[in-house]
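Final report, Chapter 2: Outcomes

The project's central promise was a pipeline that accepts a single protein chain and returns its three-dimensional structure in a standardized token representation, suitable for archiving and comparison. That pipeline is now operational. To close this chapter, we reproduce one record exactly as it appears in the project archive, with the input sequence first and the structure output second.
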Amino acid sequence: MDKTNNESEKGKHLPIQIPDADLMQLANKIVTTIEKGKQQLAVSINHTIKTTYWNVGRHIVEFEQDGNARATYGVSLLTRLANILRAKVGRGYSRPNLNNMRKFYLLFPICQTSDKSPFVICQTSDKLTWSHICELITIDDSLEREFYLNESIAEGWSVETLHRQKESGLFMRLALNKDKQGVIELAHKGQQIQTVEDVVKDTYTLEFLGIDDIKQYKECELEQRLIDNMQKFLLELGKGFAFVGRQYSLTINNVHYYVDLVFYHRILKCFVLLDIKRGAVKHKDIGQMNMYMGYFAKEENVDGDNPPIGIVMGHYKDELMVEYATYGMDSNLFVSKYELFLPNKEELRKLVMDVLNDKNEK
């Protein structure tokens, strides 16, 4: 056999080189499939955990209701039951956990039976984990609980975010500016952003900055801490805010001015200008903000943008001065307060209950 034939035979056995681009495309498809499988598994596990715990709660409540005497067992029942379950199925079924499962069943009784599974499925979104449920069942008021449930689902709140919003009394702070029907709609539908007034709070809670209310601090320090905690600050501002810039420069007749913080509201399609004052808001601060708003309306807005919103935020607010200082001004200009501590939720709740009970109506 000649040399040419030998080389031809050898060539037949050489491995075919797969182009890197083709191999990468295959790898990406496999990664996508794996990630999708992980997500489906997580949803399935979450669903199974909640269904199981809801049914455990159902068994406990049905046992308690099987005769008046059993309803009085209370803590004794759960303590003894927890000891037995720990021996049979291990950890995870302590008395506090069993109590949470019991409350879960009692507070979320509306359920449906799946056609694909004999288990009873509680109608809570797959976006909510058992940890979310444990936060929600600590809320006794049904309207307040419904609000946090709806917002957690709609906004994809983490457990940490849900806890922070509860502790800051978000529902009650939003409800204070509404009438009875408005409070009920807030609970049923969550926070709806339709007008300028819907995006501005009378009081902002900035406890996450970690500044002592007694401490002497400068405005630049307050601003820097807001920047450092921008994710939490955006959460406090509410839905739809996107951060644009800090110390946003504008020049008028060769004089430079700076807006402390500038945001864009993606729902209302407008700039939101924020100036922060360490102490009380003064009338000159309001006039300055009005000028900023005029500049943005004329120089920064593009086609499709709505008039800007201006917020002057101070630690104190003189309502009468604000009324006079804003007389005849743009209705999109607001003066708000900020607090460096969490509000008294019981006082807020009492005020909201007064609205719901129509205390002021004759």
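Archive annotation: The chain has two domains: 21-136, 193-343.
This record, like all others produced under the grant, will remain available to the consortium after the project formally closes.
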